[in-house]
Specification:
Layout lengths: L1 H4 L2 H21 L6 H33 L8 H34 L2 H5 L10 H31 L9 H32 L2
């Protein structure tokens, strides 16, 4: 067991192997790998990526940013040069996976256009599509913020790209503010998405 748990790679592989066992159980019970099954797989991947993305968003906002002033100056480079760049890699690719699998899921489920038009395409007649559409728009705004505001500014703030010294504090503030915007939006986004699946 230590061989699995002492290596992140092995731990993740073991997790996927267990998921594969559950898949084999599903097939063994006589179920088919039809459109409903593949829609489920895409939804599962959407959720896995979303957990990575929002988990790291909340880590940055609830743990890393509030803790930085408490860390002695000589220890801060460990965070800014090692931990933050690695976390930002998984953060932005978690966002990308979430949006891609979410759009594919909406297409496979037949509500992509209805959701992105907030139900206008159907005369606002389907509350579930309005709810999921609000969630999708909030998620899309958050994805845009990650890739086109937070990440470019974090690269400057962390010194991953050449920039004038006076640009670093401005970039850090911009990244922080848009990270807070995403934290704010994540709460109604999750409400809208979960409500579309459970109360409509």
């Amino acid at each position: 067991m230590a061989v699995i748990l002492t290596s992140l790679r092995n731990t993740v592989i073991a997790g996927f192997v267990l998921a594969l066992i559950l898949l084999l159980m599903y097939v063994n019970f006589g179920n088919t790998l039809d459109l409903n099954f593949w829609t489920f797989i895409v939804r599962w991947l959407h959720v896995v990526c979303g957990v990575m993305w929002i988990g790291l968003l909340w880590y940055f906002n609830f743990v890393q940013m509030p803790s930085m002033p408490k860390i002695p100056d000589d220890q801060k480079p460990a965070v800014s040069k090692v931990i933050a760049p690695e976390a930002l890699f998984w953060f932005r690719w978690g966002a990308m996976g979430t949006i891609v699998f979410g759009i594919v899921l909406a297409h496979l489920s037949g509500y992509l256009l209805d959701a992105y038009t907030l139900g206008a395409y159907e005369g606002f007649a389907v509350p579930k599509n309005i709810a999921i559409g609000i969630g999708m728009w909030l998620g899309t705004i958050m994805w845009f913020n990650v890739w086109f505001v937070i990440w470019p500014n974090q690269k400057i703030a962390l010194g991953l790209v050449d920039a004038a010294a006076d640009q670093k504090p401005k970039a850090a503030r911009m990244a922080m503010l848009f990270s807070r915007v995403n934290t704010l939006l994540s709460i109604p986004m999750l409400f809208a998405m979960v409500s579309a699946q459970n109360i409509y």
